[in-house]
Amino acid sequence: MEIRTLDNLQCPHKTFVALGTFDGLHLGHRAVIETACGQADLTPVVFSVVPPHQEERLLTKEDQEALLSQMGVEILVPAPLAQIGHLSPEEFVQTILWQTLHAAHVVCGFNFRFGNGAAGDTALLQKLCRQQGIDVTVVPPVTADGQPVSSSRIRQAIREGDIALANALSGHSYGFRAPVLQGQHLGRELGFPTINQALPKELVLPKNGVYAVRVTVANKTYFGVCNLGRHPTVGALSAPLAETYLIDFEGDLYGQTVRLEPIAFLRAEETFDSLHALQQAIAHNVEQTRDILQGVCYETV
User: Fold this and answer.
1) How far, in Å, are 199, 218, 246 from residue 250 at the CA level?
2) Is a pLDDT exceeding 60 seen at residue 16?
3) Which residues contact 55 (CB under 8 A, 6 or more apart)?
4) What does pLDDT average to over the chain?
5) CATH 2.40.30.30 given to domain 175-292
C-alpha cells in the first residue's frame, strides 16, 4: 500500500475512493472501505480526513496501515483538515475527487460532511459527483445492540476496561506494539518474572487495573497477566506502565518489540500491605486467566 500526501496525490488510474475520518477502522469504517475494495477495475483509495485536534487514537498508525493493506487498499491519503477545510464542496469534488484522484466512484458513511464549514452532506455529494459522472454509494449506519457503531463508543468501552465490547465493535483486537524495557526485577523475586512496556502516548488507554492479556513474541502467542497502571505497592510511577507476566514462557525479551492485547479486566489496581499479599493476588489472577482462556490454543500468528 502506498501512502500519499496532498502534495503527492495525483493518481494515474481511475479510482474508487472511500471518504471519511477513519480514526478507528471499526465495523462502520470497514463497511465503507470494503465497498471501495470490491471492484477489480478501479484502484481502491482511502481518503482519510485528519482533524486538527484528534482525540486519542484507537489504533497506532502502524496497525492502521497494516489493517488497510490487509483489506486491499492500494493508496492511503491522510488529509489534514487544515489543508482541505477551506475548499467549498464544489471545489472539493472538482479538484480533489475529479482532477486529482480521478474518481469514478466514491463511497462514504451516512453522516459524512465535507467542504468549508462542513457545508456539504451526502445529498450534495451525490449531486455534485453526478455532474462529473462520478458514482456515489452511501453506506447506512452499522449498529450493534441497537446503537450505531462509533469511535466515541469504542473509546468509552476501552476507558471503562470493557475490552470485549471494544473489540466486538471494532472488528479487530485492541492493542499495541512496544519494546521491552528494563524494570526493577521485582516480579522475578516474587516468582512471576515480568516484562515492562511504556504505553503509547497517542493511544486511548484502558482504566488502570489488572488484565488477562494476549502477547505476541516472535510470531508466537502467549497469554498472561498484565498490570496497567502506576504500581502503587512498590512505589507509584510517574506515568502508567504495562507490566506483564507471561504464562508458560521462559526467556529474555529485553530490547525486543512485542505486541500486547488486553482481553479481560480482572480487578482494579490496588495497594497491598505486603509483597506476600501482592504475590498471592498475582497467583490468583494467573488462575483466573487460565480459566478465562481454557481451551484456547497457543497459535502462531
Assistant:
1) 23, 13, 8
2) yes
3) 23, 151, 155, 204
4) 88
5) yes
Residue type at 104?
Answer: A
Residue-wise pLDDT for 74-100, tens only, equals: 999 999 999 999 999 999 999 999 999
Count CB neighbours of 132 within 10 A.
13
Return the number of other C-beta atoms located less than 10 Å from residue 108's C-beta.
Answer: 24
Cell 498471592 belongs to 280
pLDDT tens-digit series, residues 254-264: 889 999 999 99
Q: Where are the domains of the chain?
A: 4-8+10-144, 175-292
Cell 516480579 found at: 187
Of 102, 105, 128, the closest CA to residue 115 belongs to 128
Q: Measured between alpha carbons, how far is 271 from 266 in angstroms, rounded to an integer?
A: 15
Q: Which residues contact 100 (CB under 8 A, 6 or more apart)?
A: 9, 10, 11
Give strand pairing partners of 147.
144
- DSSP annotation of 149 reads -
- For residue 12, what pLDDT is reported? 75
The residue assigned the cell 512496556 is 197
Whether the Cβ atoms of residue 103 and residue 97 lie closer than 8 Å to each other:
yes
Cell of 192: 512471576
**pLDDT: which is higher, 84 or 269:** 84
How many residues are given for the chain? 301
Rounded Cα–Cα distance for residues 26 and 160 (Å): 18
C-alpha cell at 23: 480514526
Lowest mean pLDDT among 5-19, 122-136, 181-195: 181-195
CATH 3.40.50.620 fits 4-8+10-144, yes or no: yes
- Side chain identity at residue 82, one-letter code: A
Tell which wins on pLDDT, 184 or 272.
272
Torsion sign (Cα): 228, 247, 279, 191? negative
Distance in angstroms (rounded) separating the CA atoms of residues 285 and 239: 23
Take residue 32 and report the three cell numbers written for it: 465503507
